């Protein structure tokens, strides 16, 4: 008999990765399992905290104090299965995070917060259940006594009850009315004989019930009203006569409902390159090898079709598949393609869903009702079982790395889960990260290259325009004469264009023309960004917002000027230059509302506009056949950033956006405007030369000692007082340095590039290393010792994607 449980507690002030031992009260001993949540007393006094059970034992733990007892059980069944529990443990170590934050990251937010929880009867009512539920079908979990929970734990194992979360903002689990036939077909026919002939509706109802009695399943009311003349009134009469019962059927909120009715797509006949790729991946799947494939395929090479057919093979083999897409790339187009092939077997998870929608999708996965999961970063924790394939599309995307605790990269989690499930991983990109491409070079990953577009069309021709020359000709236009002329041509021929404004490393601000004053955030060392739609100035770091000043706060001059090129400004300019063009603008401002992104894309697809103007978010994944021109207004704003990945990011972005042109029969053309036409990232992107870029960039990284030649870890300390933050980082340095070998390189400590954010000062140092056996231990120790003490916060970021 198990009597003791090991519990990871949620104590924000004293974080710890160590489980604590508790006594399991006798009533729950038989049913309590790892992965369930409990309430336990913690510390001195009567403080009660939540925790996750991570183990149970019969033998008393090796502890000589007095053990406390679990106060309450919060789940009737584990919310984290053994795989996810093991994953949380590993993830905490790997990312220097707390196990509790890893566990919470894996669950839908509705299960973390104070949403109310109900126990619902799922089976037929019995004498025993009626004693607890009386005439209700739902109970409030919070009201239940331990004895009752004991009984419910048993029923849960027999699938008689379930726990559901009520999301107040978006109704609870959505239900619809349905008719449950109660008699046999013969009984209905007999009943019909006694009904007067002129009671037409009753006859119709009885005929309907007789026809559906054999199936025993409830029939949704909307199906009945759609196929018969029946309404709710005769159905209620039927209830009174004991012919049927009205029941509530659970439905899921379906965020992609309109896609569900679309006809299924059939697998395409693969090109030779695609076929080889699919064969290699499915062979690894059949042999249960956790092999990693890097699919390096030019834009339009048909990577998605490879994913779809590999997923099909996994499903046919009785396994499941997980497909990750970057948040920004999770366009309705991509969802439609996967849904179009696998229909209702697909669950979709991303941050655009409401809390309730996410929870519904999670439950469908957890119950095994969805075999294919498509989602953004956190979908990597989807509770799928028997995974047969994990895909990461656009694997180079930085949105796969979470920038708060746990600071994980979805790729690392994917590799861990693939090992656990013995299944292959597919990393796909036209421009793989240097880290992945280098691993393929060394044979750690299997490289699969697709050099041709699926339609055998050539890649679009790229023209680079040197804006330094353009500037002399015109004033401060965003448009070169060549780009303008080509845009005009497209409008005339009713072809479409995509225009991208690169906003990375770039923002609009307000400056006084008399004294040069720039409005700064009061909390952070950064200037405020101008937002025309809300007519306000905002801080992108802390959210601070204030009105656009009319007079300069410094010299009281009225000569305030707006600087920088926002999409809105470009749109206005374009309206003046090309009044005949219909323009759709897509940026954070126009896509904030739910569903707005998809709507804009639909409008563009329907030719309701000639030009789609947008930020980076238009660069990825879009597949519109009539786009023959892609323009990049400013290719190089990111090149000047103090980040060793600046060239890589620029090359990736240019390649991605160029790939939007000429995807069908019509030839595509790309015009790139830049002040650095000779920069190798721009030159090589012009020739679609990823391999050339890879070689060149690797040489540079080798010379400067950056990834993939070195691993990096970023250590940051912050405090409201600048000298406290500085003192701490130097103290950490003296702690870390002795643990390192001579091969390791310590950069810093230095103040962070934006030293103050949200009233806190940040100091950092970077450790570059190849093999450091003691590093993990010393960093783990630092995390344990330093949490939230004396107002100091410390973060440790393995392989940071941003150093500024
Ligand atoms: P990528 O993701 O590699 O950029 P996509 O998967 O979007 O490319 O494919 C580009 C286009 O080629 C899509 O319109 C797709 O339907 C089409 N396509 C892909 N594979 C085939 C094939 N085997 N036969 C015909 N068309 C294909
Ligand atoms: Zn001024
Ligand atoms: Zn701020």
TrEMBL record:
CDD domains: DEXHc_priA, SF2_C_priA. PROSITE patterns: HELICASE_ATP_BIND_1, HELICASE_CTER. It comes from the Bacteria. Zn(2+) 2 binds at residues 521, 524, 539, 542. Residues 547-701 form the Helicase C-terminal domain. Its EC number is 5.6.2.4. InterPro entries: DEAD/DEAH_box_helicase_dom, Helicase_ATP-bd, Helicase_C-like, P-loop_NTPase, PriA, PriA_3primeBD, PriA_3primeBD_sf, PriA_C. Its cofactor is Zn(2+). It catalyses: Couples ATP hydrolysis with the unwinding of duplex DNA by translocating in the 3'-5' direction; ATP + H2O = ADP + phosphate + H(+). It is an enzyme of class 5 (isomerase). Zn(2+) 1 binds at residues 512, 515, 552, 555. Binds 2 zinc ions per subunit. GO terms for molecular function: hydrolase activity. The keyword Transmembrane does not apply. Residues 284-450 form the Helicase ATP-binding domain. Belongs to the helicase family. PriA subfamily. Initiates the restart of stalled replication forks, which reloads the replicative helicase on sites other than the origin of replication. Recognizes and binds to abandoned replication forks and remodels them to uncover a helicase loading site. Promotes assembly of the primosome at these replication forks. HAMAP family: PriA (MF_00983). PANTHER family: PRIMOSOMAL PROTEIN N. NCBIfam families: priA (TIGR00595), PRK05580.1-3 (NF004066). Component of the replication restart primosome. This is Replication restart protein PriA. It comes from Loigolactobacillus jiayinensis.
């Amino acid at each position: 008999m198990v009597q003791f449980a090991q519990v990871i507690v949620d104590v924000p002030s004293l974080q710890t990765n160590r489980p604590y031992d508790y006594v399991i009260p006798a009533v729950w001993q038989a049913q309590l399992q790892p992965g369930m949540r409990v309430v336990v007393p913690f510390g001195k006094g009567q403080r009660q905290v939540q925790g996750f059970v991570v183990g149970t034992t019969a033998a008393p733990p090796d502890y000589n104090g007095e053990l406390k007892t679990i106060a309450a059980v919060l789940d009737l069944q584990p919310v984290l299965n053994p795989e996810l529990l093991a994953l949380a443990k590993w993830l905490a170590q790997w990312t220097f995070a707390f196990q509790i934050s890893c566990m919470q990251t894996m669950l839908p937010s509705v299960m973390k917060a104070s949403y109310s929880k109900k126990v619902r009867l799922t089976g037929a009512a019995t004498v025993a259940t009626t004693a607890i539920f009386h005439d209700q079908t739902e109970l409030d979990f919070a009201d239940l006594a331990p004895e009752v929970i004991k009984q419910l734990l048993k029923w849960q194992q027999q699938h008689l009850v379930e726990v559901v979360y009520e999301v107040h903002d978006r109704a609870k689990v959505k239900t619809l009315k349905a008719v449950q036939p109660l008699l046999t077909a013969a009984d209905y026919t007999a009943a019909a004989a006694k009904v007067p002939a002129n009671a037409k509706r009753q006859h119709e109802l009885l005929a309907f019930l007789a026809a559906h009695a054999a199936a025993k399943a409830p029939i949704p009311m909307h199906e009945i009203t759609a196929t018969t003349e029946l309404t709710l009134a005769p159905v209620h009469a039927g209830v009174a006569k004991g012919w049927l019962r009205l029941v509530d059927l659970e439905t899921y909120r379906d965020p992609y409902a309109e896609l569900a009715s679309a006809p299924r797509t059939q697998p395409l006949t693969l090109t030779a390159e695609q076929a080889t790729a699919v064969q290699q991946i499915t062979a690894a799947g059949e042999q249960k090898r956790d092999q990693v494939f890097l699919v390096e395929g030019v834009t339009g090479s048909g990577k998605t079709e490879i994913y779809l057919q590999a997923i099909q093979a996994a499903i046919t083999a009785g396994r499941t598949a997980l497909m990750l897409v970057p948040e920004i790339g999770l366009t309705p187009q991509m969802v439609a393609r996967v849904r179009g092939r696998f229909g209702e077997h697909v669950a979709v998870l991303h941050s655009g869903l409401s809390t309730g929608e996410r929870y519904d999708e999670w439950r469908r996965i957890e119950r095994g009702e969805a075999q294919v999961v498509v989602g953004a970063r956190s979908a990597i924790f989807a509770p799928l079982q028997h995974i047969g394939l994990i895909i990461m599309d656009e694997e180079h995307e930085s949105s796969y790395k979470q920038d708060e605790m746990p600071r994980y990269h979805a790729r690392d989690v994917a590799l861990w889960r693939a090992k656990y499930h013995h299944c292959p991983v597919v990393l796909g990109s036209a421009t793989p990260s240097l880290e992945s491409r280098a691993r393929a070079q060394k044979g750690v990953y299997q490289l699969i290259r697709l050099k041709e577009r699926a339609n055998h069309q050539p890649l679009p021709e790229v023209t680079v325009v040197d804006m330094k020359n353009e500037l002399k000709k015109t004033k401060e236009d965003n448009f070169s004469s060549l780009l303008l002329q080509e845009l005009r041509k497209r409008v005339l021929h009713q072809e479409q264009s995509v225009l991208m404004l690169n906003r990375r490393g770039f923002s609009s601000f307000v400056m006084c023309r008399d004294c040069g004053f720039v409005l700064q955030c009061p909390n952070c060392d950064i200037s405020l960004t101008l937002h025309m739609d809300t007519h306000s100035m905002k801080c992108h770091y802390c959210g601070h917002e204030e009105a656009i000043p009319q007079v300069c706060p410094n010299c009281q001059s009225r000569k305030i000027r707006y600087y920088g090129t926002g999409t809105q400004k470009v749109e206005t300019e374009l309206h003046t230059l090309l009044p005949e063009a219909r323009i759709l603008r897509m940026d954070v401002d126009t896509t904030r509302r739910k569903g707005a992104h998809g709507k804009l894309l639909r409008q563009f697809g329907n030719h309701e506009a000639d030009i789609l103007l947008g930020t980076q978010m238009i660069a990825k994944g879009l597949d519109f056949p009539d786009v023959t021109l892609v323009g990049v207004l400013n290719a190089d704003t990111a090149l000047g950033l103090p980040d060793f990945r600046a060239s890589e990011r620029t090359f990736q972005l240019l390649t991605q956006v160029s790939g939007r042109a000429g995807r069908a029969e019509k030839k595509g053309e790309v015009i790139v405007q830049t002040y650095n036409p000779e920069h190798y990232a721009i030159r090589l992107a012009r020739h679609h030369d990823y391999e050339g870029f890879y070689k060149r960039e690797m040489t540079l990284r080798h010379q400067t000692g950056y990834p993939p030649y070195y691993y990096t870890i970023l250590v940051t300390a912050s405090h409201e007082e600048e000298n406290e933050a500085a003192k701490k980082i130097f103290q950490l340095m003296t702690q870390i340095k002795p643990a390192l070998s001579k091969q390791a390189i310590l950069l810093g400590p230095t103040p962070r590039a934006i030293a103050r954010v949200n009233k806190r000062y940040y100091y950092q140092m970077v450790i570059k290393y190849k093999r450091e056996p003691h590093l993990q231990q010393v960093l783990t120790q630092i995390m344990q010792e330093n949490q939230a003490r004396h107002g100091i916060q410390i973060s440790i970021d393995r392989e940071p994607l941003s150093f500024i």
